[in-house]
Amino acid sequence: MKIKLSDKKLKDIKGDCEIIFVVSKNLEHKLVCDEKVLNEMNFKVEADEVLLLPEKKRMYVGIDDLEPESLRCAAALAMRTIAKSKITVLKIALYFTNDAEKGIKAMSEGFLLGAYNYQKYKSKPAKNNIKQIIISSENYYNKKIEIKNLAKKIKEAEIISRSVNFVRDIVNEPPSDLTPLKFSEIAKKEAKENNLTIKILGKKELEKLGMGAFLAVNRASIYPPQLIHLKYKPKNAKKKIVLVGKGLTYDTGGLSLKLGDGMLTMKMDMGGAGAILGVIMAISQLKLPVEVQAIIGATENAIGKDAYKPDDVLKAMNGKTIEVKNTDAEGRLVLADCLCYAQKEKFDYIVDIATLTGASMVALGEYTSAVMGFNQDLSYEILKSAKKSGELAGILPFNKYLPKLLKSDIADISNISASRYGGAITAGLFLGEFIENKNKQKWAHIDIAGPAFKDKSWGVNPVGASGAGVRLLVEWVRGVL
Ligand code: BES
Ligand code: ZN
Ligand code: ZN
Predict the structure, then answer these.
(1) Alpha-carbon distance 289 to 271, whole Å?
(2) Where are the domains positioned within the chain?
(3) 160-480: CATH superfamily
(4) For residue range 372-394, what is the model confidence (pLDDT) as tens digits?
(5) What is the pTM of this model?
(6) Ligand 1 pocket test, candidate residues 214, 252, 356, 417, most atoms within 8 A of CB
(7) What is the C-alpha to C-alpha distance for residues 372 and 402, in angstroms, rounded to an integer?
């Protein structure tokens, strides 16, 4: 599906269907020419309302305002509505409030993200027939528009949306197909196509490095673990950023086994790892002058005679000992070793991203990522990037009392908190214990357990994997320059 900018007037563009956004209480907008029908059909002028008039070749989509996020969601809804039709060419006016570039980027992202539909395992996959969406640059708002920058924004939207859709694909992949080794294969292919260098460490190398926590999680799995290390290093790099992702290709909970309902969807437990692979691909395609490294800890958390146990004590790469009190708190164990590994080199920032805790959803609701760290300014920057990108994020604050809950009687630290409250924060604090003092202010942690995967579509996101974290992190990396 291609998005094209045309300098023709909207009415002169040929298309099978025109999309019209109707702003609240503004049925008189000059593009609305079916007011009577809309009233007859009781069309409510509000977000999530859509009406397709096939004979008129027009589709009306309600929208609260013309801010970027509203445009993104309206465009996605339009795509979902028309997906099953035989229509191939759509046309639409350029909508925006103050900034046409932001408007066209958001709208293009909405179309591309809304068109996503995971069909890989269907013997008769549903086809999306839309080949082209033509956006007319005709100016309805009498505001300044730089045409050449608009085409650039469409290109950016394409790069970012393609990465998000790629991440959705790999997160949706069933866990017996997307094993750690398969993850490595995919990363290798993408490294080749995106000019990234890649280094993969297997079980032996992890043993040599003393990654006792990561290896323990892997022990009962029939699939070997993989630490996947990707680098994008442009000559003109102004900053260096390290991203670390939780890549649990399946989380059964281990011996602290999850119940059936809680286990279902745990193929998404590599959502953080998927996201950073998507981010490094997008950054490379956008040719941003910043070095980005992505470190993925890929393994399954399985059960079996070799399984690590509650009561075990593990030793991480930095020598810290960890008492295992719950084998379902496995992500932080894998990340602990990956974070130690990541700090072998110097960098400006280190950010980890993970489907880490159900507690983050209790705290913020299921659509919002939780941002944590010792550096409030950094957390705030990430929050601002999320908002710009169209993702939802909120900050969960650390405090001086919560770390005490991670005390262990027999080891340096326990892998779960002694309290049932604040579980997302204590998980973040656990990771913080593996950040060297000199790096504490350079680190942030993002828990995407809520938005990574849903059983219903929401905003620009489909049923299943959302690709959460990609848009947010690409925006943040961009802002770091
Ligand atoms: N992968 C889960 C977290 C999760 C839960 C992600 C729901 C997405 C949706 C993680 O490994 C886990 O099981 N965490 C435990 C921690 C607990 C044992 C302290 C949890 O959240 O219950
Ligand atoms: Zn778990
Ligand atoms: Zn997990």
Answers:
(1) 26
(2) 2-144, 160-480
(3) Zn peptidases (3.40.630.10)
(4) 999 999 999 999 999 999 999 99
(5) 0.98
(6) 356
(7) 13
